[in-house]
Design goal:
homodimer; alpha/beta; Four Helix Bundle (Hemerythrin (Met), subunit A); Rossmann fold; 2 domains; 7-stranded mixed sheet; 4-stranded mixed sheet; 11 helices; about 40% helix; globular
Chain lengths: ~350, ~350
């Protein structure tokens, strides 16, 4: 089961995550509009996964640009990159992937448009493959932090489905499981879109890792009851000081973990780090439609017309984070210094 | 709109809260089995409301006891009271109502079974009417604590629907609104059964009190964003030391409120206080079926067979509670002393 797959005829096949776990269906994206639409409606979601999908989206867009000159081609690619970047504001991996492809494009000497297209595809493939490799690396670093028999709480889905494969937070969990550590997992269901209930439990069941589903509001009582040893989540954007934007509810978990003296880990590839932003206050937080909260499967669960606040992410300040697990090792306080050091390797 | 209504022909009409807000339908309970079933499947819910409903359930049961002697009648009533008490373990109001009716029965001099039945009905009516009066009284005490323009977060439904009428936490909110304080409300949707989304928003819309719906996991970010001034919730059982059992998620909110320096109030009638228990650790916490978490409206939202932890309540320790608002005034620390004082008035 792959989150996405590049088909050589010029098509990005995406697993439609909005249908999981009830239906396993695929979307065939043939241009960047298809990919943008899939990202917007969360058929593909998770910061690293939307980075890789957008990279292929840019390749698809570049295939349709009918110009003879390199400059016009680059201008066209830039315009498509802007459109893809605008689909979702919080996860920085999207912009990171676009910047990386554009940089590659600009630094390629050839004037041949078809060769430039091939360069873009090669770079998108590299982003995709590197993401899996990086997840395995951060999984190995992270699993060293997990005690034998640990009972681990996670939020949303930072798994194979949120990445090109293997996963970030779930990558660490997979690596600990593969190391024979006899871990078990509590999965927050993660309202409103239930990525924990729908995706994380599904991944854990497939990997034969013991998993128990809870509603988000049970996490505090779970901790107070001594049923959990540590928390690990993914990230959508990490700022220079180590503040972390992640799925709404992450901040509450981090506060609760600190009050209960539990380690709170963030697992993310360095493509999630945005050194341009000094702190989490600068991260744009996407607010999504109220229908996500008021309806389930198209059916209302609240009175018609009720006002809703629906931020898709929140920001967890660095002081609540025990460590950030990356493909280049585990970063600890002071984050500002240590993150820059790791990024400059 | 009444939560329940006694019909003189010997029938308890219950608003079926499991169908709200989409359908307004009523159940006619003609014996105590009907009432027990309605309590179990949460057609009627909320500690004070199930106390009053069970009182009428006992009256209905007593109507069907065909015996000639007072002792046999009392034994029959006691047996039915045990059945009704067993429907839900956490809210103490159920047991409180049964104890009160049995005490009244035992202290009534007449040997006439029909007169005894009438005494039970009169006492049930008293419980019902007193609950509304008490809510208005605690509302008045509580609203004095609410600043003008306060933005109030509440959890689950501690409203007219959770009581005989007016409400506890929502009673305070109603009283503050009626006092012209220009308050507004954030309602946690309250998974798994969405009493906040379905019932609290509905009550607030009917009362024309501004309300915004959020998912439970947004509460921490709401507080960190400075969008809320205080938290107020109801209670299902309060122990002698002021620990509070209430809907799952209450504990997380109380921790978050303390971390963000926000007052955390509990509003409940004294029928919710259980002086027999020294602390919250002794409160039995009901665990409900996994289907409440894995399914919505009968449709699955999680993979088949996934393990679930589904406690219906949690316990908030007294140290996290700013004050307990009752019909005899606002109780503050030290709760052990002050609660006993108020209870002995």
């Amino acid at each position: 089961m792959n989150t996405m797959r590049w088909l050589e005829e010029g098509c990005l096949e995406l697993l439609d995550q909005s249908k999981l776990p009830l239906e396993v269906t695929y979307l065939n994206c043939r241009d960047h509009f298809d990919v943008a639409a899939a990202i917007k409606r969360l058929a593909v979601r998770g910061a690293p996964a939307i980075g890789a999908a957008a990279a292929y989206g840019l390749v698809l867009g570049a295939m349709k640009i009918e110009v003879y000159h390199k400059e016009a081609f680059i201008a066209g690619v830039e315009s498509i990159a802007r459109e893809l970047t605008a689909t979702r504001p919080t996860a920085v991996n999207l912009r990171w992937a676009m910047d990386r492809l554009l940089k590659k494009l600009r630094s390629t000497a050839t004037e041949d448009i078809n060769e430039l297209r091939a360069v873009l595809l090669a770079e998108a493939n590299l982003i995709y493959r590197e993401d899996i490799t990086n997840n395995r690396k951060l999984g190995a670093y992270g699993q060293a932090l997990i005690p034998v028999g640990a009972r681990i709480l996670t939020h949303c889905n930072a798994g194979a489905l949120a990445t090109a494969g293997y996963g970030t937070a779930l990558g660490v969990i997979r690596a600990a499981h593969e190391a024979g550590k006899k871990i078990s997992v509590y999965a927050d269901e993660t309202r409103p879109l239930l990525q924990g209930a729908r995706l994380t439990t599904w991944e854990m069941l497939h990997a034969r890792i013991p998993v128990t589903l809870i509603t988000d509001n049970m996490a505090g009582y779970l901790m107070a009851s001594g049923k959990v040893d540590l928390v690990i989540v993914g990230a959508d954007r990490i700022t220079a000081n180590g503040d972390v934007a992640n799925k709404i509810g992450t901040y509450s978990l981090a506060v609760l973990a600190q009050v209960h003296n539990l380690p709170f880990y963030v697992a993310a590839p360095l493509s999630t780090v945005d050194l341009d932003l000094a702190s989490g206050e600068e991260i744009p937080i996407e607010e999504r439609e109220s229908v996500e909260v008021t309806h389930l499967d198209g059916r209302p669960v609240a009175p018609a017309g009720v006002k809703v606040w629906n931020p898709a992410f929140d920001v967890t300040p660095n002081r609540l984070i025990t460590a950030i697990i990356t493909e280049r090792g585990v970063i600890r306080r002071p984050y500002l210094k240590n993150m820059q050091e790791v990024m400059s390797i």
